[in-house]
């Protein structure tokens, strides 16, 4: 499971491509405060399913079903989520559906918990798998294209106080 992420911008888009980031622990608190049943639903072992990745009739990755929120061995909160409408199947119960709708709506709010920034060349973000989204982007003449690297890690970012990523 992905716990740490680095995004690095080599070349920004000509227009657009603004990012928004929300710490998954803040999202958890906002969901819990809105309705504690949202958390219970999203911690169910069958809350979401990523369908199998099949290309040319060959299964590259099997279907993966699991909770959105879970705790790792050290007690750290982990979140596995995607706002993509395709390639995610949500549990078909009213509480899970309401929770995912509320979660998606968090990015539509003007919130002090959301960091909004357009990455410029040489800039990046290091996080413990923060929720993130971006606006659409375009290139007027098509000659220069956006280039953004994303690295995903199984370990959390180390705590500077303890040196532990656990």
TrEMBL record:
Keywords carried by this UniProt record: Oxidoreductase
This protein's name: TauD/TfdA-like domain-containing protein
Source species of the chain: hydrothermal vent metagenome
Domain TauD/TfdA-like, chain residue ranges per copy: 4-151
Keyword Oxidoreductase attributed: yes
GO MF annotations in UniProt: oxidoreductase activity
SUPFAM superfamilies per UniProt: Clavaminate synthase-like
InterPro entries (UniProt xref): TauD-like_sf (IPR042098), TauD/TfdA-like (IPR003819)
Keyword Metal-binding among record annotations: no
Pfam family, one: TauD
């Amino acid at each position: 499971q992905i716990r740490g992420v680095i995004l690095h911008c080599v070349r920004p888009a000509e227009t657009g491509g603004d990012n928004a980031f929300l710490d998954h622990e803040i999202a958890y608190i906002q969901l819990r405060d809105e309705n504690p049943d949202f958390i219970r639903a999203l911690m169910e072992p069958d809350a979401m399913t990523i369908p199998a990745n099949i290309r040319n009739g060959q299964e590259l990755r099997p279907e993966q079903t699991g909770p959105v929120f879970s705790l790792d061995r050290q007690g750290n909160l982990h979140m596995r989520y995607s706002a993509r409408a395709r390639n995610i199947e949500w549990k078909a119960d009213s509480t899970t559906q309401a929770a995912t709708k509320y979660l998606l709506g968090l990015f539509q709010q003007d919130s002090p918990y959301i960091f909004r920034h357009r990455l410029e060349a040489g800039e990046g973000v290091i996080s413990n798998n923060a929720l993130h989204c971006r606006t659409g982007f375009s290139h007027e003449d098509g000659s220069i294209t956006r280039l953004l690297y994303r690295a995903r890690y199984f370990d959390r970012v180390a705590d500077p106080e303890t040196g532990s990523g656990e």
